[in-house]
Amino acid sequence: MSLAQEMFAVAPAKGKANLSSGQLKLLAGKARWIYRVSEAGFPTVPSIAITRAAWEALQNQRMKRDNRLRVHWVSCLFRLVGADGQAPQLVVRTSAPVHNGGLMPARTGIPAPVSEGDSVDPSRPLGRAIKEAFESYGYERGPWHGQRSSDDRARQIVLVQANIDDELAEFLTRDPASGALGPAATGRAPLPQLPDECSDLVALLDAKAGRHMNCLVTLERGGVRFLSARPIQASVGAELEAAVERANAGVWTRQNAVNRIDPGSLGQILHPRLSSAETALPIATGLGVSPGAASGVVVFSAEDAARTRARGKHCILVVNETGPADIEGMKAATGILTARGGMTSHAGVIARITGKPCVAGVRNLTVNAVELSCRIGDKDVRTGDPVTIDGTDGSVYLGMLPLSQPNIGGALGTVLGWSDASRTIAVRTNVETVESAQTALNFGAEGIGLARSEHMFFSTERMVALRRMILSEDETDRARALEGLVDFQSGDYADLFSTMQGRPVTVRLFDPPLHEFLPRTDEDIDDTAASLGLAVRALRQRLERIAEVNPMLGHRGVRLAITYPEVLQMQIQALMAGARTASEKLGRTIPVEIMVPFVSTASEVAWVRERVMAIAQSSGLLRSQQASLSFGTMIELPRACLRAGEIAHMVDFFSFGTNDLTQTTFGISRDDAPTFLASYQRKGIYERDPFVSIDQKGVGEMITMAIARGRESNPGLKIGICGEHAGDPESLAYFSRLGVDYVSCSPYRVPIARLTLAQASA
Amino acid sequence: MSLAQEMFAVAPAKGKANLSSGQLKLLAGKARWIYRVSEAGFPTVPSIAITRAAWEALQNQRMKRDNRLRVHWVSCLFRLVGADGQAPQLVVRTSAPVHNGGLMPARTGIPAPVSEGDSVDPSRPLGRAIKEAFESYGYERGPWHGQRSSDDRARQIVLVQANIDDELAEFLTRDPASGALGPAATGRAPLPQLPDECSDLVALLDAKAGRHMNCLVTLERGGVRFLSARPIQASVGAELEAAVERANAGVWTRQNAVNRIDPGSLGQILHPRLSSAETALPIATGLGVSPGAASGVVVFSAEDAARTRARGKHCILVVNETGPADIEGMKAATGILTARGGMTSHAGVIARITGKPCVAGVRNLTVNAVELSCRIGDKDVRTGDPVTIDGTDGSVYLGMLPLSQPNIGGALGTVLGWSDASRTIAVRTNVETVESAQTALNFGAEGIGLARSEHMFFSTERMVALRRMILSEDETDRARALEGLVDFQSGDYADLFSTMQGRPVTVRLFDPPLHEFLPRTDEDIDDTAASLGLAVRALRQRLERIAEVNPMLGHRGVRLAITYPEVLQMQIQALMAGARTASEKLGRTIPVEIMVPFVSTASEVAWVRERVMAIAQSSGLLRSQQASLSFGTMIELPRACLRAGEIAHMVDFFSFGTNDLTQTTFGISRDDAPTFLASYQRKGIYERDPFVSIDQKGVGEMITMAIARGRESNPGLKIGICGEHAGDPESLAYFSRLGVDYVSCSPYRVPIARLTLAQASA
Fold this sequence. Notes:
2 copies of one chain form a homodimer. The first copy, chain A, is of the alpha/beta class. In chain A, a hairpin with a 4-residue loop joins β20 and β21 (395-398). Chain A is elongated. The first copy, chain A, has 30 helices and 30 strands.
């Protein structure tokens, strides 16, 4: 395309624009809407466009007294002249594909050039405005985008419009909160009186743009003329309503509607959120480890939390870090705020399980539990003071900030329903309680992909039984402790299977990170000693003996099953008993899936498989078809990925635990990462947090290798993903390309996964 | 080969044996020596052999009254009849390739069969003895060796010898302690009077067997007749002396001498060891984390250790676990015994660095530091009681057991010298002090492959400076702390470079596992607070803030360099200053190799490289050729292996840290592994401890992949191994097949590596 063609009328005063395909490609930002509205026949303010490349060439020729391009430019300017033949006053405005703050605001009231020379002279009003408009684009060049960014820069355009000195009116195409079709007020001013044609314009622009738009028109004597438009941010609820409306109106297909929703934005409406975060300033920031916002009065103990809750008041439990003794308090509290810990800390894990917002690892929070006060940043906060936390971004605010409650309205349900039509990968959920399972089913979960059996012990009574087991010194001791556990477990499994109504349930064998389940504070140790009938000193000695230097890499997962086979046996028996009860209740086969965690060798899998199969067979449930059994492994260690071929022979499925796989592949403890992660992101070492979005180049290669080796040796192998990445849209899109059969995420992320996978499959 | 051929004369009474190649292959154990001595012309007791397959076939035919094989057997028995034509009395003995306790002892005085039927009848003396001999072999079948073991079993042989009723004499071919050529006493009885021919037999057998042999002869009226021989275990010192003697005598080539020494056995003479471990019973067993044995009186504190040492007495420091405060005590003690911790615990690391024997993780040791007593197993032990520990196998004994001191005599030096002729892979050492470097040079180290810079701070004075740095709250604080460190470091590096006399020195950037460097006990915290001028409460708060859940996967290695660039800068400046001093002293170029630890992304390497190069360039040392600079990374995380191609572009060398790579590939904390490792080995889950011998199928594939990817993108890439596996013979043989350029191990293992790699290269 010649540079002469890079100056052209987007909406000429007379006739049609008749753009070439090259010119159509140049239509970015406002230029695009002006062109499309004008083409659709709606009266539009005459507008021309010029690219930076053309403008710079014009200037070069001007210096050399070469007038060839100027001829084209002048002819272009003439296309702004209307039927009256009068040279109009002009407006110059930028037209960026993405709006940003530094761009020059529209420059109005520019006199038409008085001569051809005047039309390109940067010391004259028109030339100066164009020059300054281009300059306002700035010039960003990332280290990897040199060439591309330079091309993009040459294609930047500036608009020149005929400035009709009429009344201006601004409105939105849709209500940004509800999504209802406008004209709607912008929020800065009430909606002006508008002629009926504006409704046509709104419908036209909404269909063409498929986005919420801010629209500027002139109200002439003769009627409405379209001047400019730019997209605006609407709430995800509004986007959903609009998408459903467009699909129902036939403007979009249903798949279009599914594709146009940003799955990441759904998080906003699946949890309570701050209504006015823009205006409040956080007093401290930590890690958002369990999403959603919560307001309440500060309490420092489980007892105070329970008391406050009993009085019908919301409270936020504030502690240095939580431990098993705090579970009742965490359940009573509306939100949790801790000074220490990260995403996989006790607080984070329990908060996500119980669905409570939680901010952890607030480094400038100091708790004085004795004086019932704490210091957050530079503020002193006492029991009963109101605070608000946002577990999505880790902010902590003083006072009770207004919250918006989650709204899983009709439009979300409709879009998710449509999404299931194109989705080919199943979405399961990571839950272990009936309550969470019910939430997940409501969100459309198709099964349980990860039931962490040790999480069934998060209650005071059961914790005693569990601690007795962990702290037992020999097999007799342990056998006694196990007796107390088997009944709990059978009942839990029966309830879970019944709730899931025959959908698959994958139970992960016991994998307690010991340090999370043991008493830590003096008080807790005293209580535990009493409940176990042990001397405090004896308990302390046992605790010291089993303390681990690196619990993440310690005596856990399959290692427990092999060193304490009686624990494995108890668990399989409880599972089978639970399946029996559920099968009798539902009158159908219960699909039990047993999963071995933290495997690094095929020999571990063989050892456990042999025992699991023996117990399952001897239960008689498989023969009577009351239960079906599927046996699989978590793949969450690099060595398991390498040996996947050998392991796959012995299993029905792999489920990738991407959290631990990321920890071991990178050699990073997620709990300890906050000390350097911020610095790493600031210095550009990491493009993104590998615990949020899967590291495709490293962890991704591990997974890819394991899938290939696993499927090669066992073509029927089923592949799932059950780490937290299974709720992250970018990671989900990646997993869908690896050919996985299902993903499993927390209940609140099930809708995100359904939508993302529908987009990826389309 | 027909079964008839599987009964044959090994040493016939008359004539030659004339064995077929198939029969030669059947000669295992004693049969082999009898045949070879007889073939060499030395008078030998007539002997025949029969395989289990032949014997069982004989028995089958006997049941069916089929005499075909019996004809061969009888003809075979006739070969025992001497010139006098008398049927001799017979001896039946097993002839196993590997001696074991369950084998039938020689059955003597068996009358010759009176008929052909009698010769195969298992109810008659000869047949019964043969049957019982075969039965005593037992029948072991491992899960993976079914077929092979069944073949081996069929080939087992039993010997029948003519029992000359003369005097027997037993002696050794060499002295088992000194290796001097015999005849030598067996240790059970004084050496009998022997005719001169015995010396010929000794020389003959020593040359044929190339091992220390126990030899049985008959002393007839006519002279000496060889009866039987079996190999015996000799000390490695004796093996070395014998090997040198055989090579000097031309019986072996020098390469033969090198190949015939078991490198693993060298460990016995490179550390003090128990002289009488066979007779003493350990009172407890832990993990041998630093090899060698030590005796001394028990002390419970650094002060007592220093006092005892000052009185010229050896002492063993007994503590729950060691921390930085114990370093002076550890230096004063002769050995260290701890209740907690594993191979990479503070105690283990410091003990290996200082060369002290250490037993750690003794689970049934309880220390009462207040009452100055401890309980080991079921014994109460008090200050001043004598104990002996063996850091090689983890045993703890009551009393002062006699020790043998290391003897790096002439024969070891000779064999190692020969080994260097065929070795193609360089052997470096992991040291950071001048003293250890000198030891390693004496053992033949060709450079330093791993100088752990943080280990240079293991002294009270420097520890204060280091703690100040770690505990600093901001950059100003840290900068002040660093000033105190730079002088120490420059001097240390200068000394190290000077000691190494221009050999390459690889310095690993600062990689302190924080928990090892910080105070833990109340007393230590009080002292540290005082030395840092901090309130105890403030120090405790800082300690809590930087405490890590999983320090192995925490804020360490390259992560420290990136978050605290001032630490990196200090270190490179100190290195350059040290190189300058050493270069001026030695008048030569100092080859400085800088290595970045714990890398997981190429971006980390790029970031550090840019800064290191800038400081090195600005020092002027490279221009003046006072120093040369090589830049590399540790490869010790799975992700670094995966991204090796990208990383290799930016570095001159990779050095594999196999300890951490094993920890992350398996997801096992070495410190915490003892709780399940024993169970894993007992249950056959692991064939061997992956921290002792490299896991070829998992970690090995990681290393192989990294080398391939690294060399593909940088063909000049140098590859080293610096984990503890670099001192393990089996691992070294594996590494040599991967094409590494050098290995680096602790000083005491340098001879083992030199020998193993010479064998592998041959």
